[in-house]
Amino acid sequence: MHYIKFVCYFLILEVMIKCAIIDDESLAIRLLADYVQKTPTLELVGKFNKATQALPLLQKEEVDLLFLDIEMPDLTGLEFIKLLKNKPLVILTTAYSQYAIDGFDLDVSDYLLKPITFERFLKAVNKASEVWQLKKGKAEQEQSISVVKDKEVKKEYFWVKTDQKLLKVFFKDMLYIEGLKEYVSIYTVHNQRIIILEALKNLEESLPCPPFVRCHKSYIVCLDKVVAIVDNHLEINKKLIPIGASYKERVRELIER
């Protein structure tokens, strides 16, 4: 009954969990490899007699779950875990129960005492799978947020209200913006001057930086359109735009990128 319960649980997972085995005993490797083959959602991507042999695979971050023996010559499993920077989920295997406490201190998923039964193996994998799904879900959520942010940054235009109409202004067409009390003037490569009733600060917050940067209390410039720096001025389309003292460091930092 336990066997059926665990197998049914694994079948609902949509992605294979990539696993590797590290054990200096060939018999132990064969047993675990057989258990992995019987488990529908596990994919065996590597078998190793020494921990150091697995490093290239682990450094590529292509392993989700590691079955790791503790007692091995040269480098023990516990020592090996401490060397890993981005370690996968780990299930420790050993013939000695006294290592259990040390293993859990290293934040491993589970601890299997040899000889390992298939039922106990499934229980450990079930536990690790739950953690893996949580991590995978969190990573996908963070990736989705990142994609949304990238799309926002890559927006190519914004809308402004002028002369009782909404006008689409493309970022690539903008040279600089001048603030004049209650309104601002947007100057474009098409020799346009677009006047809108808006505070310069509000406009600054809606523009991508870079390329747009506040260089003076009265000016925002597009760094892509700067052709020269003359004294404390930026030259854009034959116009010299002053760089305010409080903005100088930020402007220089963005220009030198």
From TrEMBL:
It holds the Pfam family LytTR. It comes from the Bacteria. GO terms for molecular function: DNA binding; phosphorelay response regulator activity. Residues 18-129 form the Response regulatory domain. SUPFAM superfamilies: CheY-like (SSF52172). SMART domains: LytTR, REC. InterPro entries: 2C-system_Tx_regulators, CheY-like_superfamily, LytTR_DNA-bd_dom, Sig_transdc_resp-reg_receiver. Residues 158-257 form the HTH LytTR-type domain. The modification 4-aspartylphosphate is found at D69. Keywords: DNA-binding, Phosphoprotein. The keyword Phosphoprotein applies. This is DNA-binding response regulator, LytR/AlgR family. It comes from Thermoflexibacter ruber.
